[in-house]
Specification:
rod-shaped, 39% helix, 12 strands, Arc Repressor Mutant, subunit A, D-Maltodextrin-Binding Protein, domain 2
């Protein structure tokens, strides 16, 4: 039984005519008759009543018609699904995002349009620390991550794309003594304790912070390491010190935080998307194609 034979049978049953079936499939009437005959021989019973002037389905033919229509629809659906899978239009894509990152930097421009264009791809969105994102990318548990550019020195074999520039700022609690100072300057933070992500979470981050502060003539004199950025914000909220973060961080708009934006800005931080250059998930290619279109 071939798909051509099935389609010929369905068409002949629809038209109750081998001639019209042949016209629909751009073949000859004798070929249709021969293929139906071969199908009947294989099945062991007649599909049509051939003894009457008008072509009619036998009871067995009517039963087979119902099942074969369903079968051919499933075959065509399976082929379409397989083609989509080969092109990356189905499957899973796992996206990691720095916690607490401002989702508005990438969700409206990349996540929403991608889901609308490729509804067959199941998206999983996971938040994590710098370390969790790096490890997720390394282990293949994340396909694409959204993080900050200074992390690139800690990740190997990846491709990255700039999403947006964000500005460095000093974050403090509203209960911090400097929070009420009206003419605040960067020099006022010279003797403050800086909360910095741990070496495990973001290797080299303290050096990055000191490089930034050196533009204002000082470096961190006192440091407290936090396990990750989320903990860093809790430390700041608790009044244990201040932190160099950026405008891409959420939660700092809450009433118990105050931030100071240095001026002039000696440098910017860039929010990026990163993915492994050896990731074979075809969905990654479809997702990252968006970056060249912006």
């Amino acid at each position: 039984m071939t798909t051509h034979q099935i389609k010929y049978f369905i068409s002949a049953a629809k038209h109750l005519s081998f001639t019209k079936c042949a016209q629909e499939h751009y073949t000859s009437q004798p070929n249709i008759s021969r293929q139906i005959s071969l199908l009947e021989k294989e099945l062991g019973f007649n599909l049509f009543n051939h003894n009457k002037k008008n072509l009619q389905l036998t009871p067995s033919g009517a039963i087979m018609l119902t099942h074969l229509i369903e079968s051919i629809e499933n075959i065509e659906k399976g082929v379409a699904t397989a083609v989509n899978a080969s092109q990356g239009k189905t499957g899973n894509l796992i996206i990691g995002c720095l916690d607490p990152f401002n989702m508005e930097l990438f969700v409206p421009d990349y996540i929403v349009p991608f889901q609308q264009k490729f509804p067959g791809i199941s998206l999983s969105l996971i938040t994590g620390s710098f370390q969790e994102l790096r490890q997720g990318l390394k282990d293949g548990k994340m396909d694409v991550i959204f993080t900050l550019d200074f992390e690139m020195k800690n990740i190997q074999n990846v491709i990255s794309h700039k999403i947006s520039d964000v500005l460095p700022l000093i974050l403090m609690s509203t209960s911090h003594p400097l929070a009420a100072k009206s003419d605040l300057r960067m020099e006022d933070f010279r003797d403050e304790t800086f909360i910095v992500p741990s070496v495990t979470d973001s290797p080299g981050r303290l050096e990055d912070v000191n490089r930034f502060l050196s533009n204002f003539g000082f470096s961190c004199s006192k440091v407290i390491y936090s396990p990750n950025i989320a903990s860093q914000l809790i430390y700041v909220r608790s009044g244990l010190g201040v932190a160099l973060v950026d405008t891409g961080i959420t939660r700092m708009e809450l009433s118990y935080y105050k931030y100071f934006l240095p001026a002039p800005q000696p440098e910017t931080i860039t929010a990026i998307a990163a993915w492994r250059n050896d990731n074979l998930n075809p969905g990654v290619n479809l997702f990252t194609q968006q970056f060249s279109q912006k």
